[in-house]
Amino acid sequence: MVIHKKLQFAAVLLATVVAALATNQPDNLPNELTVHVISNLRDKILIVHCQSESFDLGARVLEIGRGFSWGFRRKFNTHFRCDLAVEDKRLTVDAFVNGGTYRKYIYVRDSGVYGEDLIAVWRQI
């Protein structure tokens, strides 16, 4: 009887966890995603460093009008963020947070950083 109740509890707990993970996925997004960081700066160099918990994509130097893209397979805990630097200005933005943010395009301009639901102003350092 005790073993049966423990198995029943374990089954309910497992079903709850699976349901929570399934609802944590953004609706209508494919498993393979791509993010593009595009420099629309007028006459400055952009340094981009994007990473997740598992992957460090390294620092990239983008000249005027250039971009940097990467693709990845999303998992229930995927979180990519990008550190952006222009001269003495810095900013960190989320490119993808599973269950929430997905910015397919991140545009970097002199006035700030823009994308889907993103308007961020540069921070002076």
TrEMBL record:
Broad class of where this protein is predominantly found: secreted
Signal peptide range in chain numbering: 1-22
Family: Belongs to the plant self-incompatibility (S1) protein family.
Gene Ontology process terms (BP): rejection of self pollen
GO cellular component: extracellular region
Top-rank taxon: Eukaryota
Localization, UniProt: Secreted
Keywords, ordered alphabetically: Secreted, Self-incompatibility, Signal
Pfam families to which the protein is assigned, alphabetical: Self-incomp_S1
Name this polypeptide is given: S-protein homolog
InterPro entries assigned to the protein according to its UniProt record, in alphabetical order: Self-incomp_S1 (IPR010264)
